[in-house]
Design a protein that fits this description.
The protein is of the alpha+beta class. It has helices at residues 2-44, 69-74, 142-145, 277-294, 305-328, 338-377, 387-391, 394-397, 401-407, 417-429, 431-434, 441-444, 450-476; strands at 92-107, 112-124, 138-140, 153-156, 158-163, 171-175, 180-192, 204-213, 221-225, 232-234, 243-257, 261-274. The strands form two sheets. Strands 1, 2, 3, 5, 6, 7, 9 and 10 form an eight-stranded mixed beta sheet that branches. Strand 1 (92-107) and strand 2 (112-124) form a beta hairpin. The longest helix has 43 residues, at 2-44. The radius of gyration is 51 Å and the shape is elongated.
Length: 477
């Protein structure tokens, strides 16, 4: 029993000793962690530590400051640039000048034009004034533009527009010590141009580019051309393939909107005169040649149907193709253009040449039918003395030897039909024979010189077409 009691006491003593050792080690470890934390807190400048020791802070990195030196000099954060300069006072004057770099395209179908220009604004904002010993300005790019007030210009009636951004945004801001500001940007704009094509292609067009403030009425912003007409400058190398640029000029007007008020609007007007040589080669000359080609049928024998009919149809179809090609490249306007008048009159001349041959052919058929009936009713002409001499007597037949030689066999049947016709005419002119024939207007007045229709057409058609050209070019030139 005594041995057991001794063993129990020994175990209790050993357990107590081990607990004291572990407590001592834990206290030492906690002291090390706390000292390490205190050192880190001092290095980081932590304000949450309440000990009385000194706290050290890092010095700020000025290179990473949100405000640059130029912004500090202009006092960007000291003012509210969402408001215009001198808000609540008189309207701020904003001068504008424009340098036209190029006039790219003029479209009659879309009725618009595309222009690239340098748009410059001038105004004074005393909030941007800064001290300077040499009165030298400061120039900035587009990054500062977003932090200050600039005029909210836009192009009226524009379809598309953009600011060039190669290699960076083509925007420049120049600030002078007294607060004067120059704001310049390079813009390409496509704007509407209401064209009057009634004289096309002998027309002259005037297009306008309109500049206006979007938000500020004339009570807040006074927009004006800085130097009048001299505010608009153009590049001497500007040229267009279809137009000759005659002049540029500027104007200023007030525009009224019923819901917002009156606004200042600046206009850039430019006058364009169309080059006619392209249309002469592509439209007028081909149409004139087709009309002249249709006159060839007047010199072809009226019995040559396979020659005259295809010639007339070919010229008609060619004129139709020319008219279709011209109208395909033009807008569908509701009025007649000058080129339409010329082409349709030319088409009428070509069409009339076909109708002329149809009339000649029909009258020839009627003539032959009447002569056939007349020959059946005439008595024998055997008693006529010297019929050959009577056939060439101008007092009887109305034709001289020259006419008979020149007319040839036009309209006369091959097998003696010409001689029978002349004999019928001679018989009617003989009073003895004419008295035996029953008076009838249809048989007495049967002679229709269908060949004379072609002869008259050879003169009438060219003369009328030349007269039309004289009138047309005198009006539209």
């Amino acid at each position: 029993m005594q041995v057991d009691a001794v063993l129990v006491l020994l175990c209790v003593w050993l357990a107590g000793a081990a607990g004291k050792v572990a407590q001592s080690r834990g206290h030492k470890l906690e002291t090390y962690k706390q000292s390490r934390m205190r050192r880190e807190t001092r290095m980081d400048g932590g304000g949450g530590h309440k000990s009385g020791g000194p706290i050290y802070k890092r010095s700020p990195d000025m290179t990473k400051s949100p405000m640059t030196k130029s912004e500090q000099l202009l006092r960007i954060d000291d003012h509210d640039f969402t408001m215009r300069p001198a808000f609540g006072g008189p309207p701020i004057p904003v001068g504008v000048d424009v340098q036209v770099e190029s006039l790219d395209t003029i479209s009659e179908v879309d009725m618009d034009f595309t222009m690239t220009l340098y748009l410059r604004h001038y105004w004074k904002d005393e909030r941007l004034s800064f001290p300077s010993t040499n009165n030298q300005s400061m120039t900035f790019d587009s990054r500062l533009v977003k932090k200050i007030w600039v005029p909210d210009m836009f192009f009226v009636h524009s379809k598309r527009s953009f600011i060039h951004d190669t290699t960076t945004d083509n925007v420049m801001l120049r600030v002078y010590p007294d607060g004067n500001v120059l704001y310049s940007l390079r813009v390409t704009v496509t704007a509407m141009c209401n064209m009057d094509l009634s004289r096309f292609p002998l027309d002259t067009q005037t297009c306008s580019l309109e500049i206006e403030s979007y938000a500020y009425t004339d009570d807040d912003l006074m927009l004006y051309w800085k130097k009048g007409n001299e505010s608009l400058n153009t590049d001497d190398r500007i040229s267009l393939s279809q137009f000759l640029i005659q002049k540029f000029h500027t104007t200023t007007k007030l525009a009224f909107y019923s819901s917002t008020g009156w606004y200042n609007r600046l206009y850039i007007h430019f006058t364009l005169r169309r080059h006619i040589f392209f249309f002469l080669l592509q439209t007028y000359f081909p149409a004139t040649l087709m009309v002249m080609l249709s006159w060839v049928s007047f010199w072809i024998d009226r019995r040559a149907v396979p020659a005259r009919v295809p010639l007339g149809i070919t010229t008609v179809l060619t004129m139709s193709t020319i008219i279709t090609g011209v109208n395909a490249s033009m807008p569908r306007v509701s009025y007649i253009k000058a080129v339409d008048i010329y082409l349709w009159v030319s088409f009428v001349f070509v069409f009339l040449s076909v109708i002329e041959y149809a009339a000649v052919n029909y009258l020839s058929t009627v003539q032959e039918r009447k002569e056939r009936k007349l020959r059946e009713r005439l008595p024998c002409t055997c008693g006529i003395g010297n019929p050959d001499e009577m056939m060439i007597d101008p007092q009887i037949t109305g034709y001289g030897s020259m006419d008979m030689n020149t007319t040839g066999n036009y309209g006369m049947p091959e097998n003696g039909g010409r001689q029978e016709r002349m004999m019928a005419q001679v018989a009617l002119n003989d009073p003895q024979i004419a008295s035996q024939v029953k008076p009838s207007r249809g048989y007495v007045n049967i002679w229709i010189d269908t060949h004379a229709i072609d002869k008259y057409s050879r003169v009438v058609f060219p003369g009328a077409y030349i007269l039309f050209n004289i009138i047309y070019w005198s009006i539209y030139s």
